[in-house]
Amino acid sequence: MAKMWAGRTAGLTDKLADDFNSSIRFDCKMYKQDITGSMAHAAMLGAKGILTEEETQTLIDGLSQILADLEKGALAFDWQCEDIHMFVEQELTNRLGALGKKLHTARSRNDQVALDLRMYLREETDRLTAEVKGLLEVLLEQAETHRATILPGYTHLQRAQPVTFGHHLLAYAMMLLRDLDRLQDGRKRINCSPIGCCALAGTTYDTDRWMEAERLGFTDLCRNSIDGVSDRDFCVEFLNTCAILMMHLSRFSEELILWSSWEFRFVELSDAYTTGSSIMPQKKNPDMAELIRGKTGRVYGDLMALLTTLKGLPLAYNKDMQEDKESVFDAVETVHQCLQVMTPMVETMQVRADRMKLAAQEGFINATDLADYLVKKGLPFRSAYKISGELVAECMKRSCVLETLPLEVYRSFSPLFDEDLYPEIALETCVEKRISEGGTSASSVDAQISYVREKLGKEETSS
Fold this sequence. Notes:
The chain is mainly alpha-helical and 463 residues long. The protein has 19 helices and six strands.
């Protein structure tokens, strides 16, 4: 096949080199963006008198028909073409003859591919935003249901203090809110049009870059033509946001895996999101959560691959930059899949409040409240801390918990203990006393839910 860039060379590359150089098998994913961008480019050329009105309309109609044929399966990609840009131009020229060759006036594949990628990432950012919001809604529903469900909070994976399950889930909601912020903030830098930068130096034609940008929904232009074709910061930033989002999903997945184990039994995942064993009939494996945890490393790899590709590139465009798309496409599809599985998995999980409460009772996680009781009676905190630790050791000897240890035993450690002790160290009291903003009391959980809903409402308004 003759190359559209043949001229300086004969364009007769080796078959292995053709395959090595080709990107159409993955950049065909951007056919809609490429054709839509070309239609806007044709309209701009017509508006500036570079093409006649008739030529402009014929090109736009031809491109529109190619898009329709691809959409309905009447046209197949030609894998012999070097990339999606060449395929569209070749198909247009086959249909319109010499007029099809005029479409590429005042642009280059360098600014064209940057345009396609920015349009693609803008759309995918919006899709991911909607999916993160969907997961947030499910978390809020579970948090409301379990605003007062007590479980042990952990540090160092050791039982620490009592919290509510709603409070724990809202910690992940706060992470996801930050992910939304990063997605929307990054979208502003994605939404700058590079078209018209051409190969690297701009063009001698009297073009209107603003017209073309606005027609395609861009709010700004890439202001330096060299930067416009060589910038992939927006891809790195997008992948970084994906990596952080996956890290959050992975941490949550790890807890779901622990909580659904026989040792914890805090939750039971739906059969729809677990698998069995081929040899052990009793098994119910949290494979979906494990896969989300595992795929996190894959998205990290996509980010590191692109950073490594870009780190030594001189200005402006270099063929190395063709390697950006597979990393971006892989990360996009991976994060979509994980969010689409995580949301219903969390929505359908059964929470074992009885198991959570039992674990909280057995963990002496009200020991800090026991020390606070003595402090309120006038004992210095360090002295109270020591006595509380000794009482925990005493409970372990007696195989009981702080709530059931007899008052006379308490008084053998300090005369400050009295009948009012037991209500003070009840787990429900321990939770409800955490009234500081952001704490685990039911009223605080309600306030956090309202905060997240308010943020989501503002997000809807601004998008």
